[in-house]
Amino acid sequence: MGTTFPSRVCPDQACRAGVTIRPIEEKDKPEWLHLWTGKGGYIEFYNSLDKITPEISDTTFARFLDANEPVYSVVAVDDSGKIIGFANYLTHRNTWTVEDALYLNDLFVSSESRLHGVGRKLIEYIYGEADRLKCKKCYWSTQFENHRAQLLYTKKFIGTTTTDEVASIPSGKLYLTRSKQSPKGAIECLYNDAFASIKKTTSPYYYQLCITKVYQEGEADFNRFDDSEEERQSKDEWIFPIADELKIHVCEKEDGSRAIAWKDVNGDLGDKFEFVIDEEVRGSEVEAFGMTIYKCLFENKYQTSYAKVNDPNQLKEFIYNPKGELLTFDELKDLNDLEEYETDEYEDCETLPIDAPKGETKYASTDVDLHLYDTRTGTFILHLAKPDFELKLIDLGNWEYTLYIHGETTRINTTLSKNMNPTFNYQHLSFIFNDYTVDEGGINACSWLVKFPDYNDMSKFQTVFLGLMYETLNRRKWGETEEHDYFVDAFSRVSIGDAKDLESEEEEESEEENEGDGPVKWETEKNEKNSSLTVGYAKDRSYVVRGDKIGVFSEDDAGQLNFQTAIINVADLKGKHFSPEKMLLHQQDQYMIISNPQFDDKALYKMDLTRGKIVEEWEVSKDVPVKSYAPTSKFAQLTDEQTLTGISSNGLFTIDPRLSGTKLVNDKTYKAYKTTNNQFQTLATTDKGYIALGSGKGDIRLFDRLGANAKTALPSLGDPIIGIDVSKDGRWLLATCKTYLLLIDNKISDGQKNAGKLGFTNYFDKDKKPTPRRLALKPEHEAYMVRENGGKQLSFTPAYFNTGRDSKETTIVTSLGKYVVTWSMGKVLLDKENPYLVKRYTQNVIADNFKFGSNNEVIMALQDDVSMVSRRSLANPKNVFK
User: Fold this and answer.
1) What distance in Å separates the CA atoms of residue 788 and residue 443, rounded to the nearest whole number?
2) Which among 97, 398, 547, 864 is least surrounded, fewest beta carbons within 10 Å?
């Protein structure tokens, strides 16, 4: 190789309790492999056994022994000669220093040998190695949830001393406060006498919060014979990295005492630490401590000194307001921990009194009625009548707002967010929203309806509400851009013309009891789950991915879906197995293009479906990761067209496999944006090759060809676009967000300069962007599903139109959780009361799409099975959610 790295032979270093740390030797390979990939080993801990192949392990071990490789390993050996731990590390060049840097890649101690200082001694050895190898910097990474490792690394690797202290509070008590649902008790005093400090670390812009126990005279003597320094550290001091995840904040308790509080990220829902400050501590000290926390968070995020900015306004984003926090579904409670809900959910929604949130009131009214949805009757029941309660919209600061309703017996405090599923219905002068709470009985998902006396009152509320919703989703002031009309239209019920033609082409729905095909079982050796689905155009085949296998399914003469075969052990040309992603059928369904970004984000693979193996590997680019790809036109896969349209997170390009070397066509068709934060992630094409592009920021761009600027740019509603589809003629665009869909008419309306043209080829007038139609479940139906799913957050799978060369797009299909959902476009555009149908399964629906050429047959990949169902077997939601 031409470069000889420093010798890996150095003196043994002894540990207490007979443990020795030494460089790894060739004879150590079996024991090292056991700790590396064996049961209960390092790779299993990181849930990565499917990623580390024997070839990777063998190559890694060989590098440890190669003097020309800058990769090293040391092992911890007990007094019997058994290897009980290891540390793998490497050195590399550093553009910020002349000296090399040392990176601790892996550290592991067997479970039976932990808590005896072995891990600490391995780290001490690594520090000695850094000195010996003349490395300027040592660093590492570990899971944020791995709290013990955080403590261990923080103490030794970051390294602090009392001279690093930047702020302190001299006296207080440390408590662990648990949620009411915890079986461990409500509150535990960890230290009866302690002091809090904020300390610098040897890593720039990283700080830690230290809570240190104060011993009374003689008290420390009881602990001097502890076996483990780690155990003693857990008794004498708690150390936490100052990071946004902890939500550290200064608060005032009900008894008037002051406290520093932060989340216990390793505890149960609602668990938190509280450092309750003694009364004699001056208020100015507490304020200074809190301000220092915000400065530390600023420096950590922006990796620059706050002294260079010295603007208190820059700290506002780090001021955490626990009263204004929306409890996310994932945080509420794991499904397995929940007991069955009581049948009387109406009582569950009788909220307990809570303190009013503090902030500026943006809207207030007592001239409304409040109704609560009752699933037993399927209706909204009057809960509070005017003027017995007040409705407010309150500004909590830092782009957070809350809807607060308070009466004598009812308090509702709901942070404005997309999870509310807010819906305005002008026909009934009502506003409907969902509220999620958690108590001893579990999660309560309630759907509320606010009834306004007249149109003007409702319009006034809607204007204020949508302005605040826009600000919280987009983190900027309402009215600063020209996007507010687009945003308002997306949350309003507005009928769109040209819907009758769509509705007339739909088949009449019936309430027949046709259940469709039963699920098709696909048996595999491992306990793997289905992950994706693609439906053929040229051939009657559907393909489902499960691990490194692809199942092939087809419809028989009787119209039943059957399992045909499985393509097993999907591997690249070097024999490395991987799980296929982003399946795209190609060249009359003879081939399939697949990828795996974690495997190689700059490569695509061409699989011959007749042979069931990958026959070509395409290196698309040396330095541009491929985010997604699509046919050059909607029905290109029905032809022998070889090229594809691809996107990176910042550009669009043609992929041509006929090129030698890399396959990205670097000519005038390559559109790379100068701005670097576009977050492009999904695309679709029309039959003429027009391109619709959706981003992680939520905006949508329409192009008539590659290499040109977008003719139309539709602003974000605040949520990422996770899927996009277009009708074959480009008239209709369907975008999928996590909790709703957007249906957009791309035809430029009358009265505009380019009337009758499409937004792909011509510009809309500046103030007349198309009206987005926001498709979501009714709030009361969503609340039902959330309750049923134990509070697990629901997310739509990418939605699709029915499509075919000779068929018109009339229906939309998607799924969320255990439900498949179809929307009638005719009913949506005519603003019909019940535009969607649903069907429930016993498994989660992973992906779904219409059979090519049909608007009736839907093919679905469930977690374990594959199924085809007639849309006629889907039911009116009022008959399902009851």
Assistant:
1) 10
2) 97
Picking from 189-193, 552-556, 733-737, which range would have the lowest pLDDT averaged per residue? 189-193
Q: How far apart, in Å, are the Cα atoms of 360 and each of 20, 63, 474, 499?
A: 63, 63, 20, 44
Q: How far apart are CA 113 and CA 83, in angstroms?
A: 10
Residue 671 has which token pair? 């559109």
| Residues 257 and 176: beta-carbon distance below 8 Å | no
Please report, as a single letter, which amino acid is at residue 85.
Answer: G
pTM of the prediction?
0.60
- Measured CA to CA, the distance from residue 271 to residue 268 in angstroms comes to 6
CA-to-CA distance for 861 and 278, rounded, in angstroms?
A: 59
Query: For residues 75 and 21, what is the distance between their CA atoms, to the nearest angstrom?
Result: 6
Q: For residue 679, give both structure tokens.
A: 């977050």
- Which residues, in sequence order, are CB contacts of 874 under 8 Å at separation 6+? 820, 822, 837, 838, 839
pLDDT digits (tens, 9 = 90+) for 52-61: 888 999 999 9
Predicted confidence (pLDDT) at residue 611 exceeds the cutoff of 90: yes
Q: Which residues, including other chains, have CB under 8 Å from residue 737's CB and lie 6 or more apart?
A: 698, 717, 719, 720, 721, 722, 796
Residue type (1 letter), 435: D
Residues whose CB falls within 8 Å of the CB of residue 90, separated by 6 or more in sequence, listed in order: 70, 71, 72, 102, 103, 105
Residue 142: both structure tokens together? 């570990």
CA 868 remoteness from chain centre:
29
213's tokens: 């126990």
* pLDDT confidence band for 361 (50 / 70 / 90): very high
Q: How would residue 212 be classed by pLDDT, with cut points 50, 70 and 90? A: confident
Token representation of residue 652: 């669009």
How remote is the C-alpha of 546 from its chain's centroid? 22
Give the CA distances from residue 429 to residues 292, 441, 716, 773, in Å, rounded to whole numbers and listed in that order. Answer: 49, 34, 27, 19
Residue 379 CA to chain centroid, in angstroms?
Answer: 34
Instruction: Say whether the peptide bond before residue 387 is cis (omega within 30 degrees of 0).
Output: yes
Among residues 138, 246, 154, the alpha carbon closest in space to that of 206 is found at 154
Residue 655 to residues 468, 495, 594, 621, 628, Cα–Cα distance (Å):
43, 41, 13, 10, 11
In this structure, what token pair is assigned to residue 564?
Answer: 């045909």
List, in order of start, the domains of the chain with CATH numbers. 13-141 (3.40.630.30), 153-320 (2.30.29.70), 329-480 (2.30.29.30), 500-879 (2.130.10.10)
- Cα separations in angstroms, 52 against 36, 44, 494, 563: 10, 10, 53, 31
- To which residue do tokens 């782009």 refer? 399
How much is the pLDDT for 398? Answer: 80
C-alpha distances (whole Å) from 882 to each of 188, 421, 785 are 43, 20, 11
Let me know if 803 is exposed, middle or buried by CB neighbors in 10 A (0-12, 13-18, 19+): buried
